[in-house]
Amino acid sequence: MWNLPNALTFFRIALVPLLVVVLLTRFEGSEFWGLGIFLLAALTDLFDGILARKLGAVTKTGIFLDPVADKLLMSAAFISLVELNLAPAWMVVVIVGREFAVSGLRHVAQDQGVVIPANWWGKLKTLSQIVAVSLSIVSHQLGRWSHLSRVALWVALFMTVASLVSYFGSFWPKVVGNER
């Protein structure tokens, strides 16, 4: 259970409450500290998977906790953006709702022996969300970036919906086709 990839996942989970506190507490440089914490956590997501495969250290703990850590990080970041009036709540509901929907689909699929691997839409969704959150955090400090951060939020929303459609389009027939 305890290996470097899992340690990175636990570290990412530990960074989530720190991220929220830093983003929602007003102090000199809080946005830049928040951005640093967010990007550090996002990097752990990249490296834990690479290391787990490279080191042959894929564990049940990691398989379970990695997506939980990802969803905690992104949900906390987006909900913090709503609190800071940097993202519309309806957008965040769609973004977070997609996570629940795809997780539910994966759960039902797994019960039926269908594996739903990550696809490029999911990876692009994650990248666009990281960019959108990062630009939104920076725009809070540097107002001139606010237009770019709004565009990035719309791109993230589009990628989120496209990813949702991709997963459900590809796997819903396989999952409901196995209904008894």
From TrEMBL:
Domain of life: Bacteria
Metabolic or biological pathway, per its Swiss-Prot or TrEMBL entry: Phospholipid metabolism; phosphatidylglycerol biosynthesis; phosphatidylglycerol from CDP-diacylglycerol: step 1/2
Organism field: Thermoanaerobaculum aquaticum
Cellular compartment(s): Membrane
Protein name, per record: CDP-diacylglycerol--glycerol-3-phosphate 3-phosphatidyltransferase
GO biological process: glycerophospholipid biosynthetic process
Family named by the database record: Belongs to the CDP-alcohol phosphatidyltransferase class-I family.
Name of the top EC class for this enzyme: transferase
Keyword Membrane carried by entry: yes
Spans traversing the lipid bilayer: 6-25, 32-52, 72-96, 151-172
Gene3D superfamilies, per the entry: 1.20.120.1760
Membrane topology: Multi-pass membrane protein
Catalyzed chemical reaction(s): a CDP-1,2-diacyl-sn-glycerol + sn-glycerol 3-phosphate = a 1,2-diacyl-sn-glycero-3-phospho-(1'-sn-glycero-3'-phosphate) + CMP + H(+)
EC numbers for this chain: 2.7.8.5
